[in-house]
Every structure is written in C-alpha cells, then in structure tokens.
Amino acid sequence: MLISIPIEMNRKFKRDKGLNKLNWILSIALYVLLLLAFVDCLGIPCTEEYNKFLCDNQHCIWKAWRCDKENDCKDNSDEINCENKTCNATEQFRCNNGLCVSRRWLCDGEDDCKDNSDEDPTMCKNRPCNTTGQDFQCAHGKSCISSTWKCDGDRDCSDGSDEVDCEQPTCLPSEFQCSNHECITSRWRCDGEMDCEDESDEQGCPHKDCAANEFRCSSHQQCIPLPWKCDEDEDCEDGSDEQGCPARPTP
Q1: Any idea what the CATH number is for the domain that residue 215 is in?
Q2: 4 in a domain, yes or no?
C-alpha cells in the first residue's frame, strides 16, 4: 500500500501533464487561426505578394485556392485561364477561357462559360440535337436543351417553345383547379384569401355571413374581429377595413 500511493500519484501527474500539453497545443493552434483571421481583416492588399487573388467580383481569396477546380470566387473567375486543366470530354465542354461546363448547357441561350464560347453562333447553328430523345430543340435559334426541361414550367428556350403544347395537369378530387390550371387544396376555395395566382379561387363565391362582433370585408368573403377595423393595419385582403376611417388626432 505504501508503494502504490506514490505510483498512483505519479500516474496522475503524468496524465495531467499530458492533458496540459494537449491544451497548450490546442491553445496555440486557436491563437494562430485567430491571428490569421485578424490579419485578413486588416485591409492587406489583395495581391500575389501577400498570397492573395482578386476575383472579378472584387472578392479576395487565398492564392492557393486558384485553379483548384472549386468556385471559391463565386463567379468562377478563380478557375478561368488555368493551365493544364482538362475537362471530361464526354460530359463537359472546355470554354475558350479554360473553364469546364456541362455539355447540356451548350447552346441553351445562357452564357455559362462567362466568355460566351458555349453560345458561339457558328457552333450552335451547326450543332444537331441528340436524336435519342435526350435533347429538345427550341423553335427559334435551333438551341438544344435537355428533354427533361420540356413542360417543367420554366422557360428554358429563349423563345419559350419548351413550354408550348404542354398537357395541363389534372387536379386531385380533393383539389380545386384554378383558371390557369394550377391546383390548390379545396379548403382554400372561397376562404377570403387569393391562393390561385389568377385569384380565380375567390371568384363566384357566395357572400359570407359574419358574426355580430365581426366586420365583413368588401369582398364579402372574409370576416375579421371588429376591433381590427380602423386599427391602421390592413387585415382584409382588399384593405377595406382601413377605408373610411376617421382621421386620428395628431399628438
């Protein structure tokens, strides 16, 4: 027993010493990180002399992030004009500035390369669409887009031809179909709020009866508590609760 006590104390001392050393290392590492962050905020010039790179959008990044195949600048300018950069020939197109973009973005009317080389008129004019059904050819300009973008609700062709002659969606029995073919839940029909983009869910609705302690909006489809009338806050969808209110005395 007399021997075990010093041994245990020695073990505890070594363990505490090891923990103190680890804490010291972590503290130094944290100090270095904070120092780097502080130095980065001092307004040091964004030049190669300080191992910095200035993006086209004036964002400043570390020079080491240049040409690392990641969009650190958020405008791809750190990945332009990179030497020895190879693109996946089967899936990507190499822009004139060295940037790699998806071949699906070729001739889609958008400047994905940032130098417009993916929209080169000569290339796009002579580029045939994929005949296996993977591409859709726009009516004008002969641009090709992915066939999955056809009738998806977004105008991907500059002429909007990818959204022409699309089948109208069929609403579920529990849904109401707006005049613009949009589907909403039937519970939103005639609830006093415009849920359809064309407001057709609030058209042709019967007048709604309000309680004695409620105010009926001019639309006749919405009731609000009487205290909300003339409280300088539009609670009715049509704002009728704030119309014809007496002028408030100026302080």
Answers
A1: 4.10.400
A2: no
Task: Encode pLDDT of 180-205 as tens digits.
Answer: 778 899 989 988 788 888 888 888 88
**Domains in the chain, number:** 3
For residues 218-251, one letter each, b for 16 or more C-beta atoms within 10 angstroms of the residue's C-beta and e for the rest, the string is: ebbbbbbeeeebeeeeebbbbebbeeeeeeeeee
Contact 168, 151 (CB under 8 A): no
Residue 131 within any structural domain of the chain: no
CATH number at residue 56: 4.10.400.10
61 beta partners: 53
Quote the CA–CA distance of 73 and 1 in Å, as a whole number: 67
Closest CA to 117 of 138, 93, 135, 139: 93
| Mean pLDDT score across all residues of the chain | 77
**Structure token digits, residue 180:** 């613009």
- Asked if residue 55 belongs to a domain, the reply is yes
- Of 34, 57, 85, the last residue of a domain is 85
Identify the domain containing residue 180 by its residue range: 168-206
Q: Are 96 and 115 in contact (CB under 8 A)?
A: yes
189 with 215, same domain: the answer is no
Measured CA to CA, the distance from residue 18 to residue 39 in angstroms comes to 32
Asked whether 246 and 222 are in contact (CB, 8 A), the reply is no
Pick from 111, 113, 78, 79: which is nearest to 94 by CA?
113
Is 0.85 topped by the overall pTM? no
